[in-house]
């Protein structure tokens, strides 16, 4: 609150009354010239990412990071990405088959219900 409104008004009036009086006067006239905007944006250019070559597979990867292609870092395997991929593929395959089986069960014609005789 302090510093939001000029002078001693901020001490003697409640905020809604003060806003009604002061707000129409206070217009933000901060004009930015094209040069000002361009100067500010001169630092916004994207830089090309630094990349290193994997010693194991030759793929490009971020320096000081594990290779995302083979899971090697500093010449040794830190993560078995192939095993993880195989595991994920097997899981997805099982899921697809489960969904397919469920869909075929839904679409198949229902077995005929045993005839129920009406009670009299
Ligand atoms: Zn690699």
Question: How would the blueprint of this fold be written?
Answer:
Blueprint: H1 9-12, H2 15-22, H3 34-41, E1 52-53, E2 60-61, E3 72-73, E4 76-77, H4 81-107
Antiparallel strand pairs: 1-2, 3-4
What does this structure look like?
With 120 residues, this protein is mostly helical. It has a domain at 52-102. It has four helices and four strands; from the N terminus they run H-H-H-E-E-E-E-H. Strands 1-2 form a two-stranded antiparallel sheet. Strands 3-4 form a two-stranded antiparallel ribbon. The longest helix is centred in the C-terminal third of the chain and has 27 residues, at 81-107. It starts with 8 loop residues before the first helix and ends in a 13-residue tail after the last helix. The model has no long low-confidence stretch (mean pLDDT 83). The structure holds zinc ion.
In short:
With 120 residues, this protein is mainly alpha-helical.
Q: Which key phrases capture this entry?
A:
120 residues; 39% helix; binds zinc ion; two-stranded antiparallel sheet; mainly alpha
Low-pLDDT segments, ≥5 res: none
Helix/strand/pairing category: mainly alpha
Rg is: 35 Å
Spatial gap, N to C terminus: 85 Å
Rounded mean pLDDT score: 83
What binds here, in terms of ligands, is: zinc ion
Largest sheet features = 2 strands, antiparallel
- How do the helices and strands follow one another from N- to C-terminus? HHHEEEEH
**Could you say which overall geometry the principal axes of the C-alpha atoms support?**
flat
What proportion of the residues is helical, as a percent range? 25-40%
